[in-house]
Structure formats: C-alpha cells, structure tokens
Amino acid sequence: MATEISQPPKRYRGTVVVVDDEEGMCTILSKVLGQEGYHVTAFTRPKEAIAYIQNTPPEVVVTDMKMPDATGMDVLQAAREANPSTSVVVMTAYGTIEGATAAMRAGAYDYITKPFHLDDLLLTVNKALERTRLEEENEALAQTLSRQYAPQAIVGESAVMREVHALIAKVAPTDAPVLIEGESGTGKELVARAIHQHSGRHNKRFVAINCASIPEQLLESELFGHEKGAFTGAERTKMGLFEVAHKGTLFLDEIAELPLALQAKLLRAIQEHEIQRIGGLHTISVDVRIIAATNRNLLSAVEERSFRSDLYYRLNVISICLPPLRERREDIPLLLDYFIARAAQRLRRPVPILSPEALAALEHYPYPGNVRELENIIERLMVLCDKPIIEPEDLPAEVRSLHSPPPESPPAYPLDYRRAREEFERSYLEQLLRHTRGNVTEASRLSGISRRHLYEKFERLGIRADRFLQS
C-alpha cells in the first residue's frame, strides 16, 4: 500500500520514499517529513516500493531492514541501481545493528536505531538530501567537463607506440590498477582516458587529480571528503573524489608527490574498497578503478623511502612506459598533421601546408616538453600565421635556431618563370597529397581546386596520387 503526503506549510525540500511494514511507522514518518516540506511516498509492502523506486527514483529512501516479503538490502540495491545518487537511510532495531553496518558497506548513506527521536531522523534525512544534491551537482559538472574536454587521439605509428596501443587494448577491459610512467608532456592522461574509454566503466566518470598541485593539508579532503564541522571551515559535507568516481576511474597524476601519511590511507582504500571521510564515523564502500601516473622513477623513491613499497607494488600491476618524443621522431609528422587539422577546425580556417624546410625544422627540434610542447607550438602558429604555406621564418625562434640549413648554391642556369611555377606546383601538390594521405577529394576541399583540375595537374606534372595512399 502506498501513501503520498506533501504538505506545503514549509518550502519544498525534496522527495522521500519511506518503506516499513508497520503502517503506524509509515504514517508518523510521512507526517513529520511532510511538515518539513518533503514530498513523501510511503509503502508497507517492500516489493511495491521497489517497483516504484525503479520507475521514479527519489532523492532519499528511508527503509526498515527486516520486513516480510523483502529486506532493506533489497530496497537499497534497487535504489542504487535506479539512481546511484539516491541516499538510503536504513532503520534497524538495536539488536540487529550488524545488518545496518552491512548496508553501509553496500552503499547506504547512514542508519538509525529504533526507537529513535524524530528530530534525529529529520537531521539524518536532511544530511542525506544534502549528500544527494552534492552528488548530482558533481555528476552535472562531470558531464559538462566531459563535453568540454572530449578525449583526444593518441597519435603515433612508431613501433613503441604500437606496443602502447596494444597494451591499452589488453588492459582496458580489466579492473587491474595501471601505473603510467613517462616525462611531463608525453600524454600520460591521454593514455589513462583511453583505458577508461575502452573499459566497461566508459559510461561512468573519469576523475583526474594532480597530487602535486594541491596543498598537503587539503589533499586528504579532496580525495576522501569530509563531514560538516570536521575542521575549521568545513561548513558543509564534501564528497571526496573516491566517491565522485564510484563505478568509474580515478586517475592519480604525479602519484610520487603524495605524502607518506596519505599513501597509507590510499593503500587501505585500494585494498578494502572503502574510504572514511575526515570526521566521519562510518566507512563508505567505493568501486573505483585506479590509474596512477608519475614522471619520476618510483622504484628509486621506494629505495629512498619516500614512497611505500606496498603501495608501489599494489599500483604497479600493469606498467605502461611512454617514451619522450625525441625517441619516436617518426611520429612527429603525424602529430603535426593531427594538431594542425584540429586547430584549423577549431579556428574555422583552411588547413595550411608545411613547407619542406619548416617540416624539417620541426622534425629536428628536440621537444624537451614532449607532445605538449609540440601542440603548443602548433597552437601558436595557427593563431599568429594565416598563410597557406608555413615557412621556417614563421616558426618560433627556438625551433628555427636549431635548424639553419646552409644557403643553397644558385643554379648554373636560372629557372625561367614557367619552370619555377611548375616546381612550386609540384612541391605544393605533393605536400597536399602527403597531408591528405592520397585522398584527392579531401585535397580538392582543402586547396579549393576541383578534382578534375587536380587530376589534370597531376598528369601534367607526373604526380601519382596513389603513391601517397595511407603514407
């Protein structure tokens, strides 16, 4: 039997489902919560409540633990499946607290022991609602960020990058922890996102935190959350990133910078799949895949005793090492094409062509900042240079200074205008086909020359487009 009570004296607060096989309890709780502004739907039959929750997930569920045709655990499971943000409060008799603690481990927000004061129940429900709203805000923020920062491609066809791609494909479907090692700017977060996107958790959150960018005194709260009043300035309950990433992936960048005290707490969270907020009295179950990254040698940190060996071996189940860009120079032309095309699309302008000299300069630059530095160089180029062909003088000074080819000797016989134009056309069209990998339709779109005229030029200049297919 379902009873709906919504009383308007106080402003509307939220939706609550009450489940208890005692009709008197349902009536009392409905009246008290309704007077506080809640819209209450009460059930004396748990199976009816489960069906309702599955169709209309409320913000808070208050359920008894022991009932005839279903248990509070059944109600909890239904609520969590219908909407992971729903907060569940379980009511239990004093002698059956074990069941309530089991419910907490399974994801219940809190429990209250019968008999209880109605003021205590109201306080618990109010806090449960606050937790639900906080989680919904986090979900909305995560969706906004995912739209703004869509995953980028991991570009590279060198042997070492093919190995990285193969390893991502193998480890992504598992829940094994992954440790990604590499210099700054090599793309560690891109690899972590790729693992998440190809895993069974791809429709859940990917949450990233840089352990080096947050002060030590705030890092524990950021990871594990805190209760209201846990310390000075804690004016509201805060969910930690472990809770935010529940059922998803938590990416811990610069893990070597994590303080030793927090390393112990992180190890326990990974091993026990549960965390405890600062100032919290209960543990909270979390289901999170951990991916960590570092630009330091973690094994050396273990030997120096600045990093716990047990945490190292817990994280280093699968290891992926990303090489610096200077060790995979054959990928530079692909990366240049990728970042130029992406910037051109964003800036709504035609895709420029790199002259052979500019390409050579960019290929020989050492890139101490790795792929991130290359991306920034192209971003700057695309903003400041609007020419159809990028020449060496358009490049940043640090790139030009490392590639200053000797001046070419003048030809024995100066080229006439017709031959000079042919040489330019041949160079331009070959660069265009190399950029489009032999796709004549795309070359026509980028150059503004019709396909028919392109084929006429190819025939006149002796250019075979099929030589550039997938080159």
From TrEMBL:
<dbReference type="InterPro" id="IPR011006">
    <property type="entry name" value="CheY-like_superfamily"/>
</dbReference>
<dbReference type="InterPro" id="IPR002078">
    <property type="entry name" value="Sigma_54_int"/>
</dbReference>
<feature type="domain" description="Response regulatory">
    <location>
        <begin position="15"/>
        <end position="129"/>
    </location>
</feature>
<keyword id="KW-0547">Nucleotide-binding</keyword>
<keyword id="KW-0597">Phosphoprotein</keyword>
<feature type="domain" description="Sigma-54 factor interaction">
    <location>
        <begin position="154"/>
        <end position="383"/>
    </location>
</feature>
<dbReference type="InterPro" id="IPR058031">
    <property type="entry name" value="AAA_lid_NorR"/>
</dbReference>
<protein>
    <submittedName>
        <fullName>Response regulator of zinc sigma-54-dependent two-component system</fullName>
    </submittedName>
</protein>
<dbReference type="InterPro" id="IPR002197">
    <property type="entry name" value="HTH_Fis"/>
</dbReference>
<keyword id="KW-0963">Cytoplasm</keyword>
<dbReference type="GO" id="GO:0006355">
    <property type="term" value="P:regulation of DNA-templated transcription"/>
</dbReference>
<keyword id="KW-0010">Activator</keyword>
<dbReference type="InterPro" id="IPR025662">
    <property type="entry name" value="Sigma_54_int_dom_ATP-bd_1"/>
</dbReference>
<keyword id="KW-0805">Transcription regulation</keyword>
<dbReference type="InterPro" id="IPR025943">
    <property type="entry name" value="Sigma_54_int_dom_ATP-bd_2"/>
</dbReference>
<keyword id="KW-0238">DNA-binding</keyword>
<dbReference type="GO" id="GO:0005737">
    <property type="term" value="C:cytoplasm"/>
</dbReference>
<dbReference type="Pfam" id="PF02954">
    <property type="entry name" value="HTH_8"/>
</dbReference>
<feature type="modified residue" description="4-aspartylphosphate">
    <location>
        <position position="64"/>
    </location>
</feature>
<dbReference type="InterPro" id="IPR001789">
    <property type="entry name" value="Sig_transdc_resp-reg_receiver"/>
</dbReference>
<dbReference type="InterPro" id="IPR009057">
    <property type="entry name" value="Homeodomain-like_sf"/>
</dbReference>
<keyword id="KW-0804">Transcription</keyword>
<dbReference type="GO" id="GO:0005524">
    <property type="term" value="F:ATP binding"/>
</dbReference>
<dbReference type="Pfam" id="PF00158">
    <property type="entry name" value="Sigma54_activat"/>
</dbReference>
<dbReference type="InterPro" id="IPR003593">
    <property type="entry name" value="AAA+_ATPase"/>
</dbReference>
<dbReference type="Pfam" id="PF00072">
    <property type="entry name" value="Response_reg"/>
</dbReference>
<dbReference type="GO" id="GO:0043565">
    <property type="term" value="F:sequence-specific DNA binding"/>
</dbReference>
<dbReference type="InterPro" id="IPR027417">
    <property type="entry name" value="P-loop_NTPase"/>
</dbReference>
<dbReference type="GO" id="GO:0000160">
    <property type="term" value="P:phosphorelay signal transduction system"/>
</dbReference>
<keyword id="KW-0067">ATP-binding</keyword>
<dbReference type="Pfam" id="PF25601">
    <property type="entry name" value="AAA_lid_14"/>
</dbReference>
<dbReference type="InterPro" id="IPR025944">
    <property type="entry name" value="Sigma_54_int_dom_CS"/>
</dbReference>
